[in-house]
Structure formats: structure tokens, C-alpha cells
Design a protein that fits this description.
The complex is a heterodimer. Chain A contains 14 helices and ten strands. Chain A is an alpha+beta fold. Chain A folds into two domains: 44 residues, no CATH class; 307 residues, Cytochrome-c3 Hydrogenase, chain B. In chain A, the strands form four sheets. Chain A has a three-stranded antiparallel beta sheet. In chain A, a hairpin with a 6-residue loop joins strand 1 and strand 2. Chain A is globular, with a radius of gyration of 22 Å. Chain A starts with a strand and ends with a helix. Chain B has a domain of 124 residues: Alpha-Beta Plaits, CATH 3.30.70. In chain B, 32% of the residues lie in helices and 16% in strands. Chain B is built from six helices and six strands; from the N terminus they run ααβαββαβββαα. In chain B, the strands form two sheets. In chain B, strands 2, 3, 5 and 6 form a four-stranded antiparallel beta sheet that branches. In chain B, a hairpin with a 4-residue loop joins strand 2 and strand 3. Chain B is elongated. Classes of the chains: A alpha+beta, B alpha+beta. Chains A and B meet through helix 2, helix 5, strand 7 and helix 6 of A and helix 1 and helix 4 of B.
Chain lengths: 380, 185
């Protein structure tokens, strides 16, 4: 519809509305802004406006030492700080040729998978809350609180861990903590089923999600979607399996993909359902790691003045929001020459404009929630 | 859409709502998770925190050797240490040892590099202050002398206690050997 058009039948003056959703909108999960053009309630255009949470983490990397940059990588995605820690350390290790101890690798995987649980719980919990289901949000956050307590025990912090260091992990996971983790898993696995009864099986929830914002396989590849968003579209691609790192090749786990059993393949429900099933897979991985946890040092000997050889590398891991990659250049000095971070949320933002055409304004919230975009990860 | 599917949708919705409600009501008999901070708690939160908890930094200046390792490793330079030569005693003294809690991001790098365990994270986290200046901790209000580690263990009983506390902190804070050393003992 043209702006300032006259309705031919009635002669009333009609025009498109331009609405600014955000930056302080509760359902955009952080400071995100969308400039939405609507015809009544139907969206004709939704342009994401990013940059409200830019903290120049990449530039800081050029000013601090290799060891000193690890706590900064926590801030790239505060819901899944462990993965940014890991990928930066992997990049530094690759440049310097530092070996990682075997116990260190297992500690990393345990910490990362617990972090994935916490991140996915936030994701599915707030997704329900955005749509209007308040109770599941509280249930999800209650479980996440226990994970935070475990993290506090493992590394001393609840959110910005600074746990994974170059050459291994900062602190070893003690036997008492191992028992507490497995106790938590025993308690948590039935909770996932309860959560499914509470939210996933709810007819109102299904009706809001099924068939909304369908991403086809071609679109998912062309818009470079990663992680659960890509798997929700039915493409079986997981860095943990396809470009294996750490000890993942030794572990048995499945890669859940969208099936389209409710609605269409690649709709919002599929992306949500992939996350729920990843919760169960992560529990499995942590259990296996606790069983296989070998004895030995958790960190190998690394020089205090860490100076990797000049060179560059790109390392990627499977973070909760998909493929997270660090491109690091070293000039052989005490400081990284350049750090570039590539995150999954940023690419997910690019498809929002395409998917939002023709859907209702209330469904835009479903779309943002189902893509699980995270403002700090977009802007860095 | 036929009448049959319309009615089925309604019954499904009502069923799933009641299923959710049954879970919600089951929480009436479960243990509550809420902690009535800061009033109705049996023990202070600080005492329930794990050993590795990274709270506000504290410094035991009596066992600080003045090696400046913490100042150098800090990524945001929130630690500033000044060391002067005392003209009377011909010894090096701390002129100031300040930690800006505003800047500190509790990464724990400083307490790991400390050779004596003098700088360490406490379990304290309540750091409210009326102005930013109140958040700068001055650990050397008067000039204080540097600690010199003695060969063969500390002889002064007062200092020996502090050295042991520092060493114990270092051992328990970071045990990256996977408990292998403990098993050998």
C-alpha cells in the first residue's frame, strides 16, 4: 500500500505506520531495535537496527595480553561465556602449538555443556514468557540457578567465568563437585519432561508457534543461519560432529534436527523443539564426561608471558547460538594483533527482515524469540 | 475447518491448560526455592559460598613481597602499587597499595599469580558505597615495609600463621593437578 493513499471504496485516508520496537522492549532480549512498517497489524518491513550494545571487545583484544583477554571474551555472550573462552583459548593454542591436557579437555566439555543447558533454559524460558506463558520462565530460571551454583563451585563466578585458560582450565573439577553435578542431572532430566508437559504440549503455545516464520533449507543456507536455527530447518550440521574439536569425537550424542511434525519444517516450533532436545543431549554428554574423566593435571605448563608465533588462524566451536568463531592474528608479540569474533546471532538478525514480511506484529516477537538472538553477541 | 476439528481444538486446549495447572499446583507441596535475602536467612550468605567464590579482593600486606606480579597481570590495571625507598631504614616501603573495586572485574588472575597468597578473593560481595571514591580500597594507609620470605620457613609465629593462610588459599583456590598431588601424599 502506498503512503497517504485514499481507500477507493470509503475515501478514508490510510497510510503505513512506522513503529519503533525497542531498544528498550522487554521481548527483544537486550537493547535491540526494529523499525517496523505495518499495514494495520501486518508487517510489511522490519529493519533491525543493531549497535546499542557495542563494547568494542575486538579492539580491546589488541590492547591486553593473551592471558588477560580471556576474561573479556566472557562478555561477548554473557549467557554462554564458556564457549567464547574456549574458542579464544583454542585459537591461542593453535597458534602457539600448546598441548591441552586430557583432563583439561574433559573439564572444558563438562563446563561447556552445563553452560549450554543454562543458555538454552534462558532461551526457551524467555521465549515462553514473551508469548505470555509466565510460569515456565520461572521454572527454567529455577533450574538455571542450580547450574549457576555449580559453576560458582567449579570456577568461582556465576556468569563471567574466566574458567577455560590457554592450555587447559583454570581450576580442576573436584570429586565433590562431580557428585553434585550428577545429582543435578538426575534431578534435571525429569524436569525437562515436566517442562514439556507444561509448555511444549500446551495447545495455545503450539498454535502460536506452528507454521510461523518458516525457514526453508535454501534460505537457511543462503542467510548463513547456524546452530539450532539451521538444524531447525532440517539440516544436520553441528560443529561438534562435522569439524570435531576437543573430545567430542569420543562421546556419543545425537544431533536433533527439525522434523516439522507440527506445522511446517523449519517453523518456529521446530527451532524451539531442537533446543529442548539439545537439553537432553547435553545431559547425556555431561554424564559420559563425568564417567570418563581421567586423572592428571588440568592445565599444561604455559609461559606467563605468552607469545605465540606469528601467524593467523580461525577456530570455531558449536555455541548455544550456533557456530562461534574467532579469527586471531598474532605478530609474535605479547598482545594479539587482531581479534575478530563471528557469532551466530548476528547472522540470525539478517533473516528477520525477510521472514517478517506478511506476518502479524505479535508474531514478530515469536520470530525473534525462536531465533534466540542475543543482543551482546550481535554487537560485541 | 469442520465442526469436529473445532471442538477437538477446544478440548485439547482445555486439557493442556489443566495439565499445566496440575504441575503448577504440585509446587504447593514442594520445597520453596526463594531465599529471603538479606533478612530471614539462618546463616549469612557469605558463609555458604564455595571456597573458590571470587568476591571483593583483599590484601594481607604483612606477607606481600611487593613483586608487582598482580599489578602487571591485571587486564584493567585496577591495582596500583607504589614502592619507595625509605631513607632512614634504607629499605623499600609501600607508599600505597590501592585496589579500585569499581574497575575490578573479578577475573581472579591476580590472586593466581601471587607467590605468597597475599592478594585473594574474599567471600564478601556487598560493596555498596555512597560515592565511587569509597570503593577504592587503600591497603597501605601508612608506609609499610615489604615482606621478605625467609629460607627454611617463617620464624615469627604471628607471620607464620598468615603465611600458612596464604599458602592454604593458593592450594585450595587453584588445584589444576587434578588431585594427583593430594593422592601421592
Amino acid at each position: 500500500m502506498n503512503e497517504t493513499a485514499q481507500d477507493q471504496d470509503t475515501g478514508f485516508h490510510t497510510e503505513d505506520m512506522t513503529i519503533s520496537v525497542g531498544p528498550q522492549h522487554p521481548s527483544t532480549h537486550g537493547v535491540l531495535r526494529f523499525v517496523v512498517k505495518t499495514d494495520g497489524e501486518v508487517i510489511s518491513e522490519a529493519i533491525p537496527d543493531v549497535g546499542y550494545l557495542h563494547r568494542s571487545i575486538e579492539k580491546i583484544g589488541e590492547k591486553v595480553t593473551w592471558h588477560g583477554y580471556v576474561p573479556y571474551t566472557d562478555r561477548a555472550d554473557y549467557l554462554a561465556a564458556m564457549f567464547a573462552n574456549q574458542v579464544f583459548c583454542m585459537a591461542a593454542e593453535k597458534l602457539a602449538g600448546t598441548p591441552v591436557t586430557r583432563r583439561g579437555e574433559f573439564c572444558r566439555v563438562i563446563a561447556c555443556e552445563l553452560n549450554r543447558l543454562a543458555s538454552h533454559l534462558i532461551s526457551v524460558g524467555t521465549f515462553g514468557q514473551d508469548i505470555g506463558a509466565m510460569t515456565p520462565f520461572v521454572h527454567a530460571l529455577r533450574e538455571r540457578e542450580t547450574i549457576n551454583n555449580l559453576m560458582e563451585e567449579i570456577c568461582g563466578a556465576r556468569l563471567t567465568y574466566n574458567y577455560i585458560r590457554i592450555g587447559g582450565v583454570g581450576y580442576d573439577i573436584l570429586p565433590e563437585t562431580c557428585t553434585r553435578i550428577s545429582e543435578f542431572l538426575d534431578h534435571f532430566e525429569p524436569i525437562v519432561d515436566e517442562f514439556n508437559r507444561l509448555l511444549t504440549g500446551n495447545k495455545i503455545f503450539i498454535e502460536r508457534l506452528a507454521g510461523i516464520a518458516v525457514v526453508s533449507k535454501e534460505d537457511a543456507l543462503q542467510y548463513n543461519l547456524v546452530g539450532p536455527n539451521l538444524r531447525g530447518a532440517g539440516i544436520k550440521w553441528d560443529i561438534r560432529r562435522d569439524i570435531p574439536y576437543s573430545v567430542y569425537p569420543e562421546l556419543e550424542f545425537e544431533i536433533p534436527v527439525g522434523t516439522g511434525h507440527i506445522g511446517a519444517l523449519g517453523d518456529s516450533f521446530d527451532r524451539y523443539w531442537v533446543r529442548i532436545r539439545e537439553l537432553q543431549e547435553s545431559c547425556k554428554i555431561v554424564r559420559q564426561c563425568l564417567k570418563m574423566l581421567p586423572k592428571g593435571p588440568a592445565i599444561s605448563k604455559v609461559a606467563r608471558k605468552f607469545k605465540p608465533a606469528a601467524g593467523e588462524c580461525y577456530v570455531r566451536v558449536e555455541a548455544p547460538r550456533g557456530d562461534m568463531g574467532f579469527y586471531v592474528i598474532s605478530d609474535g608479540s605479547e598482545y594479539p594483533y587482531r581479534v575478530r569474533i563471528r557469532t551466530g546471532s548476528y547472522t540470525a538478525m539478517s533473516i528477520i527482515d525477510k521472514l517478517s514480511k506478511g506476518i502479524m506484529l505479535a508474531d514478530l516477537i515469536v520470530l525473534i524469540g525462536s531465533l534466540d538472538v542475543d543482543a551482546p553477541e550481535i554487537d560485541r | 475447518m469442520g465442526v469436529a476439528s473445532y471442538i477437538k481444538d477446544i478440548t485439547d486446549t482445555v486439557k493442556s491448560v489443566f495439565e499445566g495447572m496440575s504441575i503448577t499446583f504440585s509446587h504447593l507441596v514442594r520445597r520453596p526455592m526463594t531465599i529471603q535475602y538479606p533478612d530471614k536467612i539462618p546463616v549469612p550468605i557469605q558463609e555458604t559460598l564455595p571456597l573458590r567464590y571470587r568476591g571483593i579482593l583483599e590484601v594481607d600486606l604483612d606477607i606481600c613481597t611487593g613483586c608487582l606480579a598482580c599489578e602487571r597481570v591485571c587486564p584493567i590495571t585496577c591495582i596500583t602499587i607504589g614502592i619507595d625507598m625509605n631513607k632512614e631504614t634504607k629499605q623499600r616501603d609501600f607508599s600505597h597499595f590501592d585496589i579500585d573495586i569499581c574497575k575490578c572485574m573479578y577475573c581472579g588472575l591476580c590472586s593466581e599469580v601471587c607467590p605468597t597468597g597475599s592478594i585473594r578473593h574474599s567471600q564478601e560481595f556487598e560493596g555498596a558505597s555512597y560515592n565511587p571514591a569509597g570503593l577504592v580500597r587503600h591497603f597501605a594507609p601508612q608506609p609499610a615495609s615489604l615482606y621478605k620470605p625467609k629460607k627454611g620457613g617463617e620464624t615469627d609465629p604471628k607471620l607464620a600463621v598468615k603465611v600458612d593462610i596464604g599458602q592454604k588459599y593458593l592450594d585450595e583456590f587453584a588445584t589444576p593437578d587434578g588431585g594427583a598431588a593430594a593422592e601421592e601424599k
